[in-house]
Write a structure and sequence with these properties.
about 120 residues, alpha+beta, Aspartate Aminotransferase, domain 1, five-stranded antiparallel beta sheet, about 35% helix
Length: about 120
């Protein structure tokens, strides 16, 4: 799917999944107000100081967050969610705890700030 904006991307998603991703989107903006949204590789991506911070997407059977290679660092806290090397899978009925999302985003933000 080729989308021109995060709004357009979200409008094409199943309503139950859209609610979950829109909630995460708002949360990301609350944590990092100066975030910039883009569509990257067909996903809703969020950049901070022109650096990749996090992305999310909707797929046929799940939603995913792409924390930029940090899955291993947070794997112990992700019990109950399927993970790959670069993604965390979840569903509307089994969402990711926002505290984990917060930890990931603040860790990535501090890495960007310190480089």
């Amino acid at each position: 799917m080729k989308s021109v904006s995060v709004d357009k991307y979200l409008s094409s998603i199943d309503p139950a999944d859209r609610i979950v991703l829109e909630d995460i989107r708002i949360y990301i903006h609350d944590l990092v107000p100066e975030i910039e949204e883009k569509i990257s590789y067909g996903l809703a991506a969020f950049y901070y100081k022109d650096k990749y911070l996090i992305a999310f997407g909707a797929f046929k059977n799940h939603l995913s967050i792409f924390p930029g290679g940090l899955v291993g660092r947070f794997k112990a806290k992700l019990a109950g969610h399927k993970t790959t090397k670069g993604s965390i899978h979840f569903t509307a009925s089994n969402p990711i705890d926002k505290n984990i999302i917060k930890e990931i985003i603040l860790f990535r933000k501090s890495t960007i700030d310190n480089n």
